[in-house]
Write a structure and sequence with these properties.
about 90 residues, alpha+beta, four-stranded mixed beta sheet, 4 strands
Amino acid sequence: MADSNSATIEIYGADWCGDCRRAKAALDRFGITYNWHDIEHDDGAEAKAIEISGQKHIPVVVFRDGSFEVEPSATDLKTKLEALGQF
C-alpha cells in the first residue's frame, strides 16, 4: 500500500474479511498502489462502500476510471487493470 497521493485504487473492506485480504495481496503482487478504507474503523467508510456498490458485500474496489467491482478475484483485478493500462 502506498501513500494516498500516488494510489490509484480505493478498497473498502475489513481486516477479518478473507476476500479483502486476497484482493490486497493480489494488488501488492501486481505492484498496484491503493488506499485501504477499513469499514469497521474508518468513519464513514462502511456507508461509502454501500453508497458505491448498493450492497453490503466487501471488498469494494474502486478503480481510477470510477468503475468498481465487489468481491473481485485476482483474475478479475488483473483483467480490469490490464484494460486500464495499469498492469
